[in-house]
Request: fold
Amino acid sequence: MGRAFVYVILGGGVAAGYAALEFTRRGVNHGELCIISKEPVGIPLGLRQVPPYERPALSKGFLLPEAPARLPAFHTCVGANDDRLTPKWYKDHGIELVLGTRVKAADLRRKTLLTATGETISYKILIIATGARALKLEEFGIRGSDAENVCYLRSLADANRIVDVMKTCSGGHAVVIGGGYIGMECAAALVTNRIKVTMVFPEEHCMARLFTPKIAEFYEEYYESKGVNFIKGTVLTSFENSSDGKVTAVILRDGTRVPTDMVVVGIGIRANTSLFEGQLSIDKGGIKVNSQMQTSVGSVYAVGDVAAFPVKLFGGDIRRLEHVDSARRTARHAVTSIMEPGKTGDFDYLPFFYSRVFALSWQFYGDNRGEVVHYGDFPGARFGAYWVDKDRLVGAFLEGGSREDYEAIANAIRLKVPVKDLAELERSGLSFATQA
Ligand code: FAD
Ligand code: NAD
Ligand code: ISD
Reply:
């Protein structure tokens, strides 16, 4: 026994919210669309289940000590200044929300999903939007990250927990494991909550997947000026615990002991593909789709962090992007392909990443491959970098730009502006993009 829908979205994160909005814009009928999500809430304010929300808020506004962001303020699709999709919005649009419910098996031949509650839900078209999960230290052979003052950050439940743990550590000390997005944004939030931070990561500098050493040096010096201490080029090997099980120190590879009141771990993610392995093509750790977001099974689409799609701008290279703009746009594109088959062109995406910490804000467009040219005023926090490959601009980073500046660098990457002379590019700096 179970329910049947025309369209089912599996997953209730960012991509699901944007897909739902697009479905209503394209004229879905009441009762045709269902969203199934296991999204955990954690310590609830009368809220046990939660429809899609803007996950980026969790490491930014949500962690602020003053006037923190709380739901319903950041339900999707606030990031796009569109409607805010509250539970009432779904009800008014006749969209069935099956929340707090994990799908434990998928049969793509029969077009059915089996939930952990034992219900079979069938579909004509399935959109997989299962996102990703945070990697655990245990997966690297380190035990003890289930202690009550060790935090990860992926869901509202995790963010609620960080807020609670921070309250017990005011004026104290935190260790942040990982020098990527979570590490950098959480370290800034911890300091803002008057908690001193030591960041530990294996690379030579922070944000190693994107930043050049020179860009990283700027952010590391800025963080140090706010009281963050960096221990680079190493990893933790174990935790030290008090008799009540709380972590009191982290022990590093060379035996260094870093005493702490809490730990935040951000060591990367894995896309949630396991339900579909053996049923769908997998690439780059995600579900491979074509430029309509369609998987190797025609009735099944994949969007967001879980999807590996061809990036036209990079000559059709398959990429899996772990960023919110990509989640929003792949979701919309899948829905237009489903609702207007034949009329929807190939997905033509310009990769876009950003972050905001303290008073800083940067954006990056394109790909960070090839030769790098830096420009601008580093001490004044208004600087950038270009990446040049085969005599064309392929990537652009900018800190402290205006809206027009960011539009200009995005446009220059979209146009793949030819670059004749790297020295000239360095001298022109931002104006190379604004005048392109
Ligand atoms: P998710 O938002 O992860 O949603 C996946 C959903 O699927 C979840 O609700 C999950 O519970 C559900 N699910 C998974 N498996 C099942 C199952 N078997 N049954 C039922 N439900 C299931 N990106 C940026 O570009 N800028 C930022 O500033 C930024 N900040 C971020 C801050 C944080 C704290 C985090 C964690 C991420 C941030 N990101 C940011 C990344 C961005 O949030 C993701 O790229 C985006 O959420 C991906 O959307 P998604 O819908 O694909 O996956
Ligand atoms: P990440 O890939 O950005 O960084 C992972 C970091 O973990 C690496 O930089 C490395 O320093 C560290 N690391 C890896 N293995 C380790 C180990 N064994 N021990 C210690 N450190 C180790 O991943 P993240 O920071 O965990 O972020 C998770 C996801 O959230 C990503 O998809 C990211 O895009 C997303 N996110 C994005 C933003 C943003 O775009 N502004 C903000 C927050 C989160
Ligand atoms: O960085 C972000 C982003 O893209 C969001 O959607 O934060 C959120 C909201 O702007 C915060 O409410």
